[in-house]
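User: Fold this, then the next.

Assistant: Folding the first:
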Amino acid sequence: FCVQKNQRLCIDSIYKMAQLSNSLDIYLLISGKRDMKIFPSLEVLSKDINSSMDSLRIDISPPVASTPYGLISTYDSFNFFFLTSLWEGTPKVVVEAMARGLIVIAPRLGGLHHTIINNYNGFLYSNYDPLSISSLLLDIVSIPPEQLLDISQNAIETSSRYTVEAQQLILNQAIDSCQ
C-alpha cells in the first residue's frame, strides 16, 4: 500500500463500477506491503464500502507472495488483474497474471504497452479518473464470455515470451549479432 501503487484509485473505480451496475457481484483483493501513512485510510474506506454494499466485497491483505507461489496460486481465484500504478516498467506480476490466464487491465505507461495489446491480450487505459475507469471496467465485463476466453488465451500465449528460456534466447541473439 504505497503511493506508487495507487490503491485508492482501484477502490474508487471498483466502487463506482458497483454503483453503476446492479447485476454484478464483485470481489476485490488488494495485496501489498503496508505503508502506514496510507494503509489506515484504505482500511477504513474498504470497511465502509463493505458495510454499505452487498454486491461489492473488498479485502485488503498483507502481501500474499510470502511463499514462492503465494500470489501465483491466488491468481486462480480471479478473472481479472487490475493494475493502477502511477509508474512502472513492465512489472513481473502482470506477466504472472497473464500466464495464469487473467485478463490484465493496466495503465498505458512504462513498458506495459509492449506487453499488453489493447483488446487482444488485455486492456490499457490512459485516464486516471475513477468514473472513466469504472465505465471501461463495465464495458470489459460485458464482453461475451467466448471473446474474454480468447483474450485470456492470448494473454497466456503472450506470457510465454517472458520465460527465462525465451529471454535467454533473445539475449543470445543480441550478443551474437554484435560479434
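Now the next one, as you asked:
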Amino acid sequence: GMKKYKIGNCNEQADALNVALRANGYKNVNSVSLFAYNTKTESIRDLDHIVVGVDLKLPKNFQYYGDDFPHKKQLIEPHNGSIIADPWAGFVDTGKGYIQRYKENTNIFSPLKKDEKLMYGVLPSFELTDTDFAYLKTFYPGFYGARPQPQPQAKLPEGRFDRIKKQVTNIINKILPKIS
C-alpha cells in the first residue's frame, strides 16, 4: 500500500503515525476505531475509520477492542485530556474537540445519526523492539528520534497540548510522506 503506491487508507496511516510517535519517544499511544453508539437502542455502528489516541486514560483492566465487533464495555468516550490525531483527515485535536471536527466534516466522515454519540474502540498497544528501532534508524533517519528510555505511563501534563499538537502535526505532514 503506502510504500509501493505512495497512498494509504486511514488504518495504514494510523499505524504509520503510531510507529512514528513511538520512535520519537511518545508513550501511551493507541490506534482507535471509531464507532457510533445509539444511546436509546444501545446499538453500535462501525464508522469504518481509525485514528491515533495519545493518553486516553484507560481504566485498569480495560478490555481492548479486537477483531470482533465490540461490546459497549469495550468503548470509551473521548475526553479533553487525550489527544486524537487523524493523519487521514490531516488534523490533531483534543478528545472532545475531535468530536466537533467529526460532526463538522460530514463530507469526509459518516455522519452521526440522531441519538448517536462518537465512541472509541481502543486497539491494543504495541512496543517497538530493538530490531524495529535499528530498522527505522537505518532506513528512515530523518524521522527517527533518540531511542526513548522506558518511562512509566505518565499523565499528559496540563498545557502541553499545543506543543504536542505541533509535534504530531509535524509528523503527519513531514515524516509520514517520507515513509510512504
